[in-house]
Amino acid sequence: MQKEYNKKYDIDKILKDCQKALSYNFENEKYLLEAITHRTFANENKSDKEKIKYNQRLEFLGDSVLSLVMSDYLFKKYPNYKEGLLSKIKSSLVSSQMLSQLSKDLKLGDFILLGHGEEASGGRQKENILEDLFEAVVGAIYLDSNIDCAKKFIINAYKDKLNNLNIEDSYKDYKTIFQEIIQKKYKINPKYQTVEIENNKFKSEVFVNNKSYAVGFGKSKKESEMETAKNGLDYINFNKEKI
């Protein structure tokens, strides 16, 4: 397998170490190899004879598997909660920030195959790359086995987060809270600018009196603006702004 890829990487060792970190052994390692291959690496190493697969299709699949597993877990864990609250809890559990943190916990950034430019710009620590990587790994495990194995991996990866889940946080609407604080102080509403940057990834920035307060990212306009509002609240708390 190693001969097919850039000789800079010891692919066999990477696959072995990655499986150890995941506590999962692949029957077919091609799924894992695809999951840890970033498009920049695939683009730099493509040839007329070979087209290297990268992880965006697996990310798409893993996103759906993750959503199903989390919905099933929360539905059974909290039988008395209404669907609105369950949705908010799930949103916090599958947020960009959460998924990138799970990748960091598993040290998945150590194993991703990156192009030279992305490597040089710190791609192993970028939240959007780490988020996609976690979802791609979920998709790879699902294809290599079944939904039960994927669920086992996901629940184990989330173990500490689920054990320390603060339900009260799920009631919070960061955008509403941020708006109320800004209205109280400045008598105006914050303004959001949101753009789609690539492959259904959105970037938002919030302004108050033409001053940028925070930036956030998400898989939808709503998610990116919510993340931006949360970061705006963190900015206010960090700078101890008096409201």
From TrEMBL:
The protein's predominant localisation is cytoplasm
What range(s) does the DRBM domain occupy?
A: 173-238
Report quaternary structure and partners: Homodimer.
* Subcellular localization: Cytoplasm
Q: Which UniProt keywords apply?
A: Cytoplasm, Endonuclease, Hydrolase, Magnesium, Metal-binding, mRNA processing, Nuclease, RNA-binding, rRNA processing, rRNA-binding, tRNA processing
Q: What is this protein called?
A: Ribonuclease 3
Q: What PANTHER family does the entry give?
A: RIBONUCLEASE 3, RIBONUCLEASE III
User: Do you know which Gene3D superfamilies this protein is assigned to?
Assistant: 3.30.160.20, Ribonuclease III domain
Binding site residues for Mg(2+): 59, 132, 135
Q: What family is reported? A: Belongs to the ribonuclease III family.
Is rRNA processing found in the keyword set?
Answer: yes
Which molecular-function annotation in GO is an example for this chain?
A: ribonuclease III activity
Which residue positions are annotated as catalytic? 63, 135
Protein's job: Digests double-stranded RNA. Involved in the processing of primary rRNA transcript to yield the immediate precursors to the large and small rRNAs (23S and 16S). Processes some mRNAs, and tRNAs when they are encoded in the rRNA operon. Processes pre-crRNA and tracrRNA of type II CRISPR loci if present in the organism.
The cofactors it requires, by name, are: Mg(2+)
Check the record and name the Pfam families matching this protein.
dsrm, Ribonucleas_3_3
Q: What is its EC number?
A: 3.1.26.3
